[in-house]
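Cross-check.
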Amino acid sequence: MLVDRLKHPGAALVLAALLTLPWVTVELTGGPGANNFSDVLTVTVSGVAVLGASFLLAWGAETAEKDVPRAFAIAVLAVLAVAPEYAVDALYAWTAGANVGTPRGMEAANLAVANMTGANRILIGLGWSGIAMFTVYRATTSRDVAVERREGFLASRVQLDRNISTEIAFLLAATAYAFFVPFSGGIGILDTVVLVGLYVAYIGIIIRGDVVAHDDQVGVPAYLQGFVRRYRIPIVIVLFAYSGLMIATAVHPFAHGLESIGEAAGIPPFFMIQWIAPLASESPELIVVAYLVNKARSTAGFNALISSKLNQWTLLIGTLAVVYSIAAGQIGTLPFDEKQQAEIWITAAQSLFAIAILTNFTISLREALTLLVLFASQVVTEFAIIRTVASEARATELSILLLDAYTVVYLALALYLFAARREEVLYLFRKTARDASDAMGRTSAAETDD
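Predicted model, tokenized:
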């Protein structure tokens, strides 16, 4: 009897909530500082809370698919999962705006850009590649119809949902625009208007999509979808709100704890801000996607990853200038130096290559490994430069040359794939245009009926 109760979906909900309770207790009693927590203990307690909240967030999104279009539910999930990244970048942008014209302000502005580019590259370099490889591996013991086994060296691949063409097309538009951002010497209000405008247009399309009944839910989502609508919707709202609150409050101490541990190990602070902190803030998203893949829902998992990249590449960049301007008390442009200019270009180039891979709505193990190797080798090489070159100016110069070289490699690979898959690219834009037209048509029809 006890075993049967433990297998009940409600028990899983309770367990996930219990994982967050130690952190709730810490917050109510003044936080890690007031409790004299060590960095290791802070990372442990906050990390467990992030894990529990990530499951609650995933279950909320899956349950919501019964009442709203799947793409919209995943978009909400993506925004909540990467909200900590927004908060970290907003903090640096605010500091920069509050200290305009000072060395501290310029340093904070560069850190905002570094953290943003690091988060975006981690999402693709580790997220997209790692989840693709995990999906193929997981398919050896699960019946994931999205995985296609092929003969040849790392030829097996993951099939993506063709309905994600809208996300890919908007991501391509945002990426193309990002290449021009460095030419203005900073991130300004025009960038905000364009990039946030792209995301608003994207949401305007997907929210008008059809709500399709999905009968593939199991476990907690299936259990919650069994509730009548007047109970189900408040449950989803509570899951979103609570998990979002837990992630927002726990990820920062989690990231800072990791930073302190890393600095104690001799890792440079700037390197920590660009790579370790974003890795911590991206962890809820990666946990959610790994959970979906483990349920043989790799299509939904990749949809979430791509949606996260889109909102980070539009909203995250676009809102930096707004926060900076508010802190400065006037409309301004968040500045950055030559090093961050190169960081933006390599991030845009990596994004372009990743989009080129997805134009045929598949990602193979070979392609995933290429993304991973290019990302990891660049980070490791730059870290070696920072640690071995005594002159800071010379280290920065070599780092910029390294970033430029990898940018060229990413661009060459992307242009080759776009040329080889030009028919798929045309199909992608035609399908996006058709989906947008259908969505607007449904809205017009509804207004006519009213």
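The two ends are 53 Å apart (CA to CA). The chain has one domain: 2-441. Passed to J.P. for a second look.
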